[in-house]
Amino acid sequence: MSLAGINIAYPQARKETKPVFRVFPVSLLLLALIACGTRQSSSDPPDDVPRAHDAPAQHDDHATVDHQFDDIERWVAAFDDPQRDAWQKPEAVVDAMALQPGMVVADIGAGTGYFNPYLAAAVGPEGKVIAVDIERALVAHMTTRAANEGTPQVEPRLAAPDNPKLAPAEVDRILLVDTYHHIDGRVDYFRALRGALRPSGSLVLVDFKKGDIPVGPPERHRLDPMMVEEELSTAGWRLVGSPDILPYQYVLVWEVAPD
């Protein structure tokens, strides 16, 4: 699942068949970072990148959108635009995760791997970054990227729309950036996801705020944090923090709720 939701022009969406998480912003990017761009800005890719139409959603929140990822370079230009750093603040997001050297972190909806080098630096050579996405092309791209960046602790992993393919108690931290709103069946998905965390593990969720902001998907694709809290509480999570560190996105930190 890819991360999405930046203010960019996306490649043409295909007719939705099964909801996916990509950030992605949702493929899983993470990103993440998948959504339909609305306004053009200086950080947008060239105008020859076609915009995605609003695919019919299967959530009442109209969040889930399906996209094609055949042209990786177009998505790299969008997701890894250097101007994104100014508002995404990846170092601040990673700091909020309280990562320690040697930890294992999963980025669900990692997309093109925007967060991978930041996470790899935080966990160090003895740790591991599991970069999860449901798109084979993006997983292959992240594999090449990790080799080029000299981050062997990054392990790109192909997942399914309803299963991130994490083993029981495999990770200390889970990150989703602009990906949550692309996941269908979220309560069931996140109820099952609890088993992937080790004791004292946490989930960090980043997604776009509602309102008039210069980046992000159309407002109908954004979820109110109160809705997120209701869903994750039902799925067996407990909200333990909401650091106000990003201008256009909320950050929610969760732990598995006690039985």
Give a quick summary of the entry.
This protein has one domain: 3-Layer(aba) Sandwich (Rossmann fold), CATH 3.40.50.150.
Structure description:
By secondary structure, the protein is an alpha/beta fold. 23% of the residues lie in helices and 19% in strands. The protein has helices at 72-79, 85-88, 90-96, 116-123, 136-149, 186-193, 225-234; strands at 104-108, 128-133, 154-158, 171-177, 197-208, 237-241, 249-256. It has a 7-stranded mixed beta sheet, with helices on both faces. Strand 6 and strand 7 form a beta hairpin. It is globular.
Sheet with the most strands, sense and barrel status: 7 strands, mixed
Uncertain residue segments: 3-65
CATH fold-level assignment: Rossmann fold
Helix content: 10-25%
Overall body shape: globular
Q: Under the CATH scheme, which architecture would be assigned?
A: 3-Layer(aba) Sandwich
Structural class: alpha/beta
User: CATH superfamily assignment?
Assistant: Vaccinia Virus protein VP39
The helix-strand sequence is: HHHEHEHEEHEHEE
Distance between the termini: 30 Å
- The radius of gyration over CA amounts to 16 Å
Question: Could you give the topology of this structure?
Answer:
Blueprint: H1 72-79, H2 85-88, H3 90-96, E1 104-108, H4 116-123, E2 128-133, H5 136-149, E3 154-158, E4 171-177, H6 186-193, E5 197-208, H7 225-234, E6 237-241, E7 249-256
Parallel strand pairs: 1-2, 1-4, 2-3, 4-5
Antiparallel strand pairs: 5-7, 6-7
